[in-house]
Amino acid sequence: MNEKSLKELLLKVKNGQMTIEDAIQELKVLPFEDLGYAKIDFHRNIRTGYPEVIFCQGKRIEHIVGIVQKMLQRENNILATRATPEVYEAIKEITNDAEYYELARIVVVKRRELEKTKGIILVATGGTADIPIAEEAAVTAEVLGNTVDRLYDVGVAGIHRLLMNSERLMRARVIIAVAGMEGALASVIGGLVDCPVIAVPTSVGYGSNFNGLSALLTMLNSCASGIGVVNIDNGFGAGYLASMINKIGERGQER
């Protein structure tokens, strides 16, 4: 149940189209529904503005399908992250609306269009190998209703590639900097722009990068101000956080 359907329910009670008892029955599953293997948080959409997201990694396909089936009844958009092609094929069996973003490893079921923000989230990568994590961030932000600009392969090994795109950097309301190796991209961008920078360390790199730990520590120790860091390879978390920041800015412009 989303905010719109809750208002419709209350209006039916007010107009005598539904009894209080029937309304209570509907509201019983509002906080969450217990499937035994999962408790789906239907109240999250009203509480935070975003429906619950399905993290597929480690889940059995039949459990994912069961969760999706229940969520489809609420007519919300569905975002399933870290999804394999097999997960996508299983979801496609129960809905024709499923779309698979292979690089991002995300399945999206779009049931309603969201108005895109005027503010831009720019997603930048140090290298081409960082694109899968960047796409997870970009697709997440887009599905949550944001305008996204992609700027890939602009790492510090050829810093002129980044500097030649300074106008795009300056237009952004939030920037997501995705980089492996030593993770210096976030610091460079942070020193150039006047907006928040969300740094995403990736596990891309040679042996001594310790599966992304070197990039994580560099980003945490950045001397540039205005940088926040999410966990290694957490493109989804970066896209979600960037959306929240962007939407706050959007509300500020409306006042």
TrEMBL record:
Domain PurE: 119-251
Signal peptide (UniProt feature, chain positions): none
Xref: SMART domains: AIRC
Cited Gene3D superfamilies: 3.40.50.1970
Pfam families per record: AIRC
GO biological process: 'de novo' IMP biosynthetic process
GO molecular function: hydrolase activity
Protein name per Swiss-Prot or TrEMBL: PurE domain-containing protein
